[in-house]
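DM between two lab members

TW: hey, do you still have the Transcription antitermination protein nusG entry open?
JB: yeah, one sec
JB: this one, 178 aa:
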Amino acid sequence: MQDDQDKHDMAARHWYVLQCKPRECERAVVQLANQGYVAFLPTLRREVIRRGQRTVISEPLFPHYIFVQLSATEDNWAPIRSTRGVAKVLRFGDLPLAVPEAIVRALQTREQAQDAGEATAAALFAPGQSVRISEGPLAGLEAVVAARDGNERVVLLLTLLHQQQRVNLPIAAIKATE
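TW: and the structure you got?
JB:
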């Protein structure tokens, strides 16, 4: 009975860490998926200015590292070492480095929430909509949404001293008026 339990534990899938070659995490994930492996690359979205324009980019949360789900006994690990983009399997001593399921699940949940947050923010404020600024030195003032500026910011038209001013603010700093 104990032998059956040991075999079941060995056949269970765990998440392992792979180190990737520079700027090839996405390629490694695609190549692993093409080979039938389940791979996960946690990303971080942030706003940057490129050529004078604000854009939102997605970059690896852990540069050079991805997670792959494998069984210690049932999966063939040999093709992983020669997969394009993969440098090596991280090890602790002679054993591959397993990551607790809860950590990867939390990263996946964070990723899904980040994606849902973008969709919600995009649908929340439309050009021409009246809003109230809820944070910062302009808190309490009313404005009109002029445009979206990336996924995290909006351009507002604010009337100050009888003149309209354009103000860029984070989406989190405004609330819809009722």
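TW: got it. Helices lie at 2-11, 25-34, 78-81, 101-124. Confidence is low (pLDDT under 50) at residues 4-8.
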